[in-house]
Design a protein that fits this description.
With 528 residues, the chain is an alpha/beta fold. The chain has 21 helices and nine strands. The chain has four domains: 120 residues, 3-Layer(aba) Sandwich (Rossmann fold), CATH 3.40.50; 114 residues, no CATH class; 103 residues, Toll/interleukin-1 receptor homology (TIR) domain (Rossmann fold, 3-Layer(aba) Sandwich); 130 residues, no CATH class. Helices cover 54% and strands 8% of the residues.
């Protein structure tokens, strides 16, 4: 009979642990993993102790973070006192407490499949280790070397786009960040997709400069075009590698993709009725109303108050991070709709992630009578500190950020190529850039934090039009200020070009995802 397994680890290694658990479950093992196993309505500490008591084997994932974690230490010290079996899963070679050196171990620093095969064999038939557990040495999977080499290439190519600022800022340190396992995949992907675009604009600017200068820049234009063509081949490959299973195991949470524990498609008989209460800030009432409508569609009644509810959904955002409900005596479901810091008593409860948009409400309504299945189907693994937004909001954020960078980069490029033009329009340019910076700050604040005067669809739309006006002014300002015989830089047209193209894409995207935007911007306080 296969032994029950308890997974002891640091949440910094959640990508690796998630895949390890999945493979062990495929082999028929029962694995207790906190964010898949904790259910509402019972103290998390009691559940962890029960998970330890009911497990025959404890897999201790060894890394720098896990060996420094007081919670992990409490788990393995308790297991030692109970004289249970421990297998060390070596993710990083680190100094171990002497008491752990005698236990079985499996080295996962290299080939994951080989490590799984060896671990399954040891779980079914214990072995006497012939070699001491590795506590020194550096070994990494082959896919990491591929990611490192490809990132070196993209880092070099980003040197041709220094004027854009955004692209080299994330791509130049990427090789180092890959070895450190702490790159932010959301930001890196955005920079990688932008790299070919920026390189193409660099090539056009060099070509445009040729017509007004000597033929000395012909080589620069050809080089930039060649780098662009090469980037079209390299960038998709690197993105594919970064999103591969091997790199998802390797990276810390911020390097991991958002992943649901499992998929669930509602079917079968209507669920048993469960009284519910949605605890939300007034600013989040649009989402609360949609959830309530869906629950009532499946005949779940609204509770008269929070104390009498069988299930309490707490919408967590910048406007609310706590609840009057007791997560140790009620079924409390924290629903993260915006990245924030939950109250201490909610931080140990598994939460549902709506930060990328409200989805699967029908599945939630059907599984409401079964909290454990609900969280297994709709809960997500811990995400780390990466910025998580609905796709349409993330697109707006990057559009504004990149547009601001394009404007600033075009000014720098124009100043470098034609300093006389730049100094002729210096003061008007500085004023326009100042207005753009202020507007950009408040618009991004409204998007990310959902706070301020621009945290509303109408006000944000007017601000976006103002941004377009300033982009147009910045585009034509150098032409107005310079003399008739002065040279022209194609980089001057980048801000208006970026605004027109970006707005076209955003409007198309908005047509499909308007409801996400409507939910995201906070509801205004009701008058009276």
């Amino acid at each position: 009979m296969k032994p029950n397994i308890f997974m002891s680890y640091s949440r910094r290694e959640v990508g690796f642990v998630d895949q390890l658990t999945g493979r062990l479950e495929e082999e028929g093992f029962q694995v207790w993993l906190d964010y898949r196993s904790l259910i509402p309505g019972s103290p998390w500490k009691t559940q962890i102790e029960k998970g330890l008591d009911e497990s025959e084997v404890i897999l201790l994932v060894v890394s720098k973070e896990s060996m420094a974690s007081k919670y992990v230490e409490l788990e393995w010290r308790r297991v030692i006192q109970e004289d249970k079996r421990i297998i060390l899963v070596i993710l990083e070679a680190v100094d171990l407490p002497e008491v752990l050196e005698k236990y079985e171990w499996v080295d996962f620093r290299g080939n994951f499949k080989a490590g799984i095969k060896e671990l399954v064999g040891q779980l079914e038939s214990p072995v006497q280790e012939e070699h001491p557990v590795p506590q020194t040495g550096f070994k990494i999977p082959g896919v990491v070397w591929w990611a490192f080499l490809l990132s070196l290439v993209t880092a070099f190519m980003s040197l041709f786009s220094l004027w854009s600022l955004f692209v080299p800022f994330f791509l130049l340190p990427l090789p180092y960040r890959i070895f450190k396992r702490d790159f932010n995949i959301t930001q890196v992907q955005a920079a990688l997709w932008m790299l070919p675009v920026v390189l193409l604009l660099t090539a056009f600017a060099s070509e445009g400069s040729e017509g007004n200068a000597s033929g000395e820049v012909t080589g620069a234009s050809a080089t930039a075009l060649g780098v662009f063509l090469f980037s079209v081949l390299v960038v998709p490959v690197l993105i594919f590698v970064l999103r591969s299973k091997g790199m998802q195991r390797w990276g810390k949470p911020q390097a991991s993709l958002i992943k649901f524990a499992s998929l669930y498609r509602p079917e079968g008989q209507p669920p048993k009725a469960v009284s519910f209460f949605i605890d939300n800030a007034p600013q989040d009432r649009h989402i609360a109303a949609e959830m309530a409508r869906t629950f009532e569609k499946y005949d779940h009644p609204r509770a008269a108050d929070i104390q009498s509810a069988e299930a309490v959904f707490v919408l967590l955002s910048e406007f609310k991070n706590d609840t009057e409900a007791d997560p140790e005596s009620q079924s409390v479901f924290p629903v993260m709709i915006q990245t924030c810091e939950p109250a201490e008593r909610l931080s140990k409860v598994q939460w549902i992630d709506f930060r990328r948009g409200v989805r699967n409400l029908d599945a939630m309504a059907r599984l409401l009578p079964e909290p454990a299945r609900l969280l297994k189907a709709l809960g997500v693994r811990p995400m780390g500190n990466q910025l998580t937004l609905p796709p349409i909001i993330m697109g707006m954020y990057y559009f504004l950020t990149l547009l601001g960078i394009f404007i600033l980069g075009s000014v720098f490029k124009n100043a470098w190529e034609f300093p006389d033009n730049f100094f002729a329009a210096f003061f008007p340019t500085a004023i326009v850039l100042g207005l753009i910076a202020v507007l950009l700050y408040f618009m991004n604040r409204g998007l990310i934090r959902r706070k301020g005067r621009l945290a509303g669809f109408v006000s944000f739309s007017f601000a976006l039009l103002g941004f377009g006006v300033l982009s147009t002014v910045q585009t034509f300002l150098p032409a107005i200020m310079r003399s008739e015989d002065a040279d022209f830089s194609l980089a001057e047209a980048y801000p208006l070009f970026a605004f027109v193209v970006g707005m076209t894409v955003m409007l198309i995207f908005l047509g499909f995802r308007y409801r996400d935007v409507h939910r995201w911007f906070p509801a205004r306080a009701k008058k009276g």
